[in-house]
Amino acid sequence: MGRGRAKAKQTKVARELKYSTHDTDFDALQRELSGKSSQNSHDEDDKYEDPYADEYDDYRR
């Protein structure tokens, strides 16, 4: 029970995506696909920080 409302919402969203027009920034898409970015490489390194890194790992033996 309750599946009808969820399915109706999914159908509505799918229909909006299918029939709506979007302004696509092809220059930004090209930069993203080619791997070139206007940000520093340090920003990219910080984004993928190791969640298991421990600041005290250097002191363990």
Automatic annotation (TrEMBL):
Extent of Basic residues compositional bias: 1-12
Coiled coil: none
InterPro entries assigned: DUF3073
Compositional bias per record (Acidic residues), positions renumbered to this chain: 46-61
Domain of life: Bacteria
Disordered, as annotated region: 1-61
Basic and acidic residues bias: start-end ranges: 13-34
Protein name listed in UniProt: DUF3073 domain-containing protein
